[in-house]
Structure formats: C-alpha cells, structure tokens
Amino acid sequence: MSARRRKADRTKRTRNPVAEQPPFAQPRLLMAPTAIVSDDELEAIHQASLRVLSETGIDFLHPDALRMLAGAGARVDGERVRFDPEMIAEYMAHIPSEFTLHGRLPNRDLRIGDNWICYSSVASAPNYVGLDGQRRTGDRAGFQDFLRLGQMLNSVHTFAGYPVEPIDLHASIRHLEAAYDAHTLTDRAFHIYSLSRERNLDGIEMARIARGIDDETLEREPSLVSIINASSPLRYDTVMLEGIIQMSARNQVIVITPFTLAGAMAPITIGGAVVQQNAEALAGLVFTQVVRKGAPVMYGGFTSNVDMRSGSPAFGTPEYAKACLIGGQLTRKYQVPYRSSNVSASNAIDAQAGYESVWALWGAIMGGANFIMHGAGWMEGGLHASLEKMVIDADLLNMVSTFLAPLDLSDDALAVDAIAKVGPAGHFFGEAHTQARYTNEFYSPMVSDWRNWETWEEAGSPDAKSRANATAREILANYEKPPIDDAIEAELRDFVDRRIAEGGVATDY
Question: What is the value of pTM for the model shown?
C-alpha cells in the first residue's frame, strides 16, 4: 500500500469524539440487582447494626445536634447517642425513595432513586496529572480543565465535588470561586463541602442564584448535594453535622457515607465492616429526618479493605464489590437511594486502573446504586485526578449504559427476513437491515482501537493512554461554554466579590 493511500485511510478514520458520544441520558437498571446474601443473612446484618446503635451508640460532636436528637427520642449521654430500633424505623420511613436533583438548566435534571443511575465526575483529589504527564498539586487552572472536560462528556451527569482541589485559592474564599467556576463553566448540578456553616450558606445561595429562582422554589426543587462522611469508627464531627443541619433544613440533598476501611477504621471481616457501615449510615440518615422530615438523602457505601502489609487503602477489589452488593441489598430493604463509587488504587493509566474500575462499577451497578461517585477520572486511591482517565472512564460508563439499555426484540430486530435475504455463505455488511442500524445502534468508544496489527502499528502503536490524551485535548479544544443569562452570571460574580470583600469564611478552626 502506498504512503498516500495509508495517509488517506488514516484520514478516513479520524473521528470527532465530541459529536459521536451517546446523548446525555440517565441509564436504568432494568434487570434484577444482584443479591449476594440471603434474606435471613441480610436481616442478621440489620439486627447487628441495630445492636451497635442501641448498645454502643455513635458520638455526635455538635451541641445542637445532641439537643435535636434528645428531643426526637434518642438516648443522649454526653456526646454519645444511642438509638432504639423503634426510633430508627420511625424516622427512616420519612426518607423519600426517589427525588429529582435539579441542574442549572432543566435538561440536566437527574432522577435519583428507583432504578435510575447517574454518574458523577472524580471529586476531591488533592493532586492531578495534566495532559503533559506532570503530577501537580491541585490548582484553579486544572480545576477548570476538569470542569470543561466533564461538561463536554455526556456520561458525566453531575459534579459531586471539586474534581481536583484548587489549592492556590485561599481556603477562606476557595468555595466561592470554585462554585462560581462550576456554575458558569458547566450546567450540571453541583456539590458543596460541609466544612463550616458559612460555606454551606454561601453554597446554597449561589445555587439559588445560578438557577434564577427564589428561596421557596429552591426548597421545593433540590439543586445541591453535600457528601457527609462519618468519622469512622462511630463518630460524626461538628462540621459534618452542621452540613446536615443547614442542607436538610433547606431540603437539599445529603449523601451519608461512612468511610469504613476493613482492618483500619472497621472490623477486618466484610460482615463486620458492613455492620459498622450500616450502623453509622442509619444514624446519619435518621438525623437528616430529625432536622426535616422528608428531606432528600442517600445511603452511601464506601466499604473497602486495606493492604495489611502497608496500611494503604485498596480499591476495586473483590471485597469492595461484595460490600457494594450487600449495601445495595440494605438500601432496597430500607427503600432509600444508594450511592457507590468507581474507584482505583492504581498510580498509572494501566491494566490495574482498568480492571479495578470495572470491578468497582460491576459491584456498584449490580448492587443497584443510583448515584455513582467518582465515575470518571479517579486514581491513586483518590490522591490524584487524571484527565486521561476521565476520558477512559467516560467510555467505560457509556459501555455500561449501552449494556443496560433494553434489547430490541421486535420482529424486525429478530431479522428473520434479513437472514433469508442473505442466505447461506453471504454477508450482512451491505444488507439494508445492517445499513439502517450500524451508525446508531452500536456505541463506538472514543478511546478503544479495534484495528488489526498492521494498521495499528502504522499509526504509531497508540495505546489507550495516548489515545485518551489526544481525545482529551480535542474535547477541550472544542469546549463550548453552556448558556447562562448575563444577569445571572453578573449576580453570581457580585455575590462572590461581596463575600470576598467581607473576608470569606474563617479558617482558624
């Protein structure tokens, strides 16, 4: 083959990854979730969790939370709170099984609960690896690149936290500038960190401004998420509880997520770790309903194990997947929405990063998770975010969604007539039945390369990492800022500038 012909063939293969993505849409789990334990075993886990709550209890490090819980019927002794099973059952019954999380624009609204699934970007990484291959401490420029990339990836439904922490913004004003960037560079629902009362109040007000709505509408239409982590084992600290108080009081979304690593902050057995996870989760879920009955909240599962030789967290392991499946069974028992995660402990874009993410997603999806945190771009056990991994994970999420799409088993799809037309020893490439479908019924990944060895080698033997790098560069080059009303953007800027002039928030805690 001549060099000119080879170049022409490569030109024909050039694709626009932005245009060829599946549309922005939420998948649904139409098959039955996987049950890994029997009903009797699940009940044993539930009862063991109730014993922990009733006998050992949970520490709540917030005076107002202690008063509210005592008034609701909990047994409070200093900072230790014990819950009777009847109280747990009473308040759990108020949690909505399904709700809508509203995006900045209506076409970005997300259904949370039932069999709906949504994917978030990577969140909360302190470092990131740029497209030049350099690992950096988080900064605003990197933060903005992740927002732009996520905005252009249709499988990223929401930003459940800062994809990377913009540490070059002072902590007193970081939440203001970061939220401004998120609300203006993207049109997705956003997340705020519950790190102080003032940060919560600022975040809630900026979400209201960004949507152009009044306070009453905001309380009817949840538009903001905050992750609340128990300080495992068996403790909720002051800022986390303040976040529940402020967010749930305004009917915004809380995700209660114990951080239970078996062998470190939880028992080394998966059963014991899940019992502790469940006890901590139930305590947090109940408190949201003590603050406001009917407030939207999710049960978050994040139980994994540690490498006992080093003490480092391990993610995307069989143990992690098992805990995901049990967590899903528990949330179906309680009829509350479920959060899980796409995770990996790998430091590099390699086979480990791929198979750990697949393991994690398999456990999450088949566990019936409604909200997949860190869906795209999470690396090194959460210590860094990767633009290349974000593109690879977006491909993986699209594959999951395509797998979950219902099969077409209509008479035409069963193709009896097409089989008859082609007959023995023919082929289906040119058949009308094929031509009518191949462009829109089969997902073409942005990163996977299915050429044979000769053409792959001619193209420079591009591996997944290099293809993801090129794809990320192309997507960022084609970034388009989503529409936002000029008056709304100006009001957001005015709010941020005013709060900065006031000094932002205190950081002497």
Answer: 0.94
